[in-house]
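Lecture 7 notes: from sequence to structure.
We start with the chain below.
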Amino acid sequence: MKTISEYKDLALQSLEGNWTKVAVASFINFLILEILGSGPSLFMEPTAGAVLQGVITIILLPLLWSYIVFFLRLIRKEDLAYGHLFDGFRQYGRILLAMLLKGIYTLLWSLLLIVPGIIKEYSYAMTEFILKDNPEMNGEQAICESMRMMEGHKMQLFLLDLSMIGWLILSLLTLGIGFLFSIPYLYSAHAHFYENLKAESLTSNP
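Predicted structure tokens for the same chain:
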């Protein structure tokens, strides 16, 4: 496995020349989630609005998946057309159920204690990428594969995320504008982490 610094360097290399495109992609994603996710609830009674917002957020989970795997396309130097931000809707049922299942499992572990929830979140961290590379897999299979791949690597990914804290704090200080750049940086690093795990898995299981 590569070092944390190497993953960050690889992410920056992949983003070089693509910062504007990923910032626009992030803005599009944010705008859709805000307009569709929060907009209707603003005109409703608070409790009903919160319920509606939760339902819409679940319905839009494939949009989040599309955004995450957009960065796998980036590091592989594939086509980065903005239309790919909606790829999850082309296999809507499969992606929705997988993302929903991942969220439910994480929530259930978090209800036990915070630490087990965090550990499981990192166990499931590669699920989105695995779903993209393995269209024959359902959500349960992708989650199990993520757990297998992340065995012994959860702490390294956690430390990678921890090393990004400065970027995220800076993003808050810019009234959120910085997130258009820091989130792509984070997900690009995650994509490189996945590629490394995948290569390592193929080597150990020819």
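Points to note: The chain is about 75% helix and 0% strand. The first helix runs from residue 4 to 15.
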